[in-house]
Design a protein that fits this description.
10 helices; single chain; Rossmann fold; 7-stranded mixed β-sheet
């Protein structure tokens, strides 16, 4: 437990440190494609106008703000993250878009979400599941807070099944991500990405974990040649 707590604290502090440049860095690394992938996650979550929805590990608010646009003025979006500096930026971005009345930002641990059971109509999670110290518990929490029949759409890195795509991913991490991190002064902060991808369950394993967490249906959709993926799970 001490090791797990230390790991969780390290990840939280890491995301607090990178908060000021997080959005610019992601835009640069993905050549802008991360916005397309996040919109796909919103679409597959089933979020609609007027719904009460949740974005777990919301970071600086990209997915939550896309959800806020989707649910409209009559809807409500809660963004949850344990990195308070990221939440502060998310709140600023929400205010700039005029979404203050429909967004709510909560400091929260994804393994112990401070929400009632069956509270949300839809849920997203972007680049968060891979960083949890207990992925099964994280999926169980997503399942718990969703209403029956509601969906979770979980976007994250993925290990490609194709050998050459895997080699490209490794090249990309080594020659694009690492130098970019160095330019932003974030070498140490982004050194964890490669090992975290290696440890992360692949698509069919994520599907099995989702079923074990109680989801009735689960499908994993590979993106970018299998370097990214979205797990869509229905309660």
């Amino acid at each position: 437990m001490a090791q797990a707590t230390r790991d969780a604290t390290y990840i939280r502090d890491l995301f607090d440190r990178i908060a000021p440049v997080y959005d610019e860095f992601n835009q640069s690394l993905s050549f802008g494609l991360h916005t397309v992938w996040k919109q796909m996650a919103v679409d597959w979550s089933g979020a609609q106008r007027g719904m009460n929805v949740l974005d777990v590990c919301c970071g600086s608010g990209d997915l939550a703000l896309l959800l806020a646009r989707r649910v409209g003025e009559q809807g409500q979006v809660t963004g949850a993250d344990f990195a308070v500096e990221q939440l502060a930026i998310a709140a600023q971005r929400s205010a700039a878009k005029g979404y203050t009345s429909r967004t709510h930002w909560v400091e929260a641990d994804a393994l112990r979400l401070p929400f009632e059971t069956a509270q949300f109509d839809a849920l997203t999670m972007g680049y968060g599941l891979r960083n949890l110290i207990d992925i099964s518990q994280g999926l169980s929490e997503l399942h718990r807070v969703l209403k029956p029949g509601a969906k979770a759409a979980v976007l994250d890195f993925h290990r490609p099944s194709s050998e050459w795509v895997g080699q490209f991913q490794q090249w990309y991490l080594n020659t694009i991500v690492v130098p970019a991190a160095e330019r932003f002064g974030l070498s140490e902060e982004y050194a964890y990405i490669g090992p975290s991808v290696e440890r992360f369950p692949i698509g069919n394993e994520q599907v099995s974990l989702a079923h074990a967490a109680g989801f009735s249906e689960a499908v994993h959709y590979p993106l970018a040649g299998g370097m990214m993926g979205i797990l869509v799970a229905q309660k």
